[in-house]
Predict the 3D structure of the following.
Amino acid sequence: MNTLKEIETLVEKGILVGVNLQNDDHFEYSMEELANLAQALDVEVVGTVTQKLERVTPSHYIGTGKIEEVKAFFEETDANIVIFNDELSPSQIRNLERDLECKVIDRTMLILDIFSRRAKTREAQMQVQLAQLQYMLPRLVGLHASLSRQGGGTGGGFKNRGAGETKLELDRRKIEDQIAKLRRDLEGVKEQRETQRKQRRKNAVPVVSIVGYTNAGKSTIMNRLLAKMGQEDSKQVFEKDMLFATLETSVRNIELPDNKSFLLTDTVGFVSKLPHHLVKAFRSTLEEARDADLLLHVVDVSNEEYSFMMNVTNDTLKAVGVEDIPTIYVYNKSDLAQVAYPLISGDNVWISAKQDVGLDELMGMIRKQIFSNYVQCDMLIPYSDGGAVSYLNEQATINSTSYEEHGTLLSLELKEADFKKFEQYVVK
């Protein structure tokens, strides 16, 4: 089956087709999003055809009357591709391509190709390739002529199937081998990630994970928080006003002025009807969020469908086992929504990352949440244990230091783990 990449020289004008099932409240937005996805692949949308149905037509997705309408529209606009707003079955694609006499792709294929273009790291590329192969496997169409060449040899039976295999079976076997290899390779990457996570847990470094719908401003928030802490430009992550600008999980160490630090991770964005294979393929990446101490759920509050976007994000996180983690809801782009900002209400904060307004409030909420287990105390450390004083000066927040007859008196704030480590020196 061809992918968009193989025909991208032809793809210039596309017609979008969608079925509004049972008066779906989010259908219009779903079609708008499909147009944005098409534009992300430089497809000029020249028209849209929609139909209201109780259920999709099993053979063609749309009704037979609509097929004629799409065909006429296709010829009238000089389009060269038709894009459907749902995942089509192999038989639906075959039937539609036969009757429309043109190239047909579905929403899943569109998203997979965007991911394929955006993937930069080896891990992201492997994850996308795995999802593409899993999508293609049931959609392989063998050449009918090759079916007659099966078998061969004498004595009946198929002792040596190698020479007589159909092209379809050869393609299927090749894809299954590729899938198996990619799974093995990704398992190795997953083990590396798990080792890194164990090290973080051992070091008791809090992890804050940014999650949210695509293009909600996650990377912008990450970059602004890094800049606020004066961290060098080389640590900045890619940000752009487009769907799926970043697919890689970025991990940055945020160092605070009072010797506290935490890890900030930025995960791949979500979208409605995110292909099932893609969610499965990116599971190890999304698991970064599962081990977080705190989630920042970033929401584009300027979009009237933001509640729907929040539900999509929550459902996808639940699908990969990210549940019961403290969450701050960050309503970004407040400047475009004509709402009051900066504003804090419970676990919700309204900000504008682009305008650099509300980030101090957000940082205050993060600190309050992840450093709630810090202990304030005084410690008298004998002069003979200079190493402890040196360690605490690096790892804790020292409020005052005085040199007493029996040792160094520190008034400090420190992690609970460090408190237990040096508990014998506590004086109050």
In short: Confidence is low (pLDDT under 50) at residues 142-164. The radius of gyration is 28 Å.
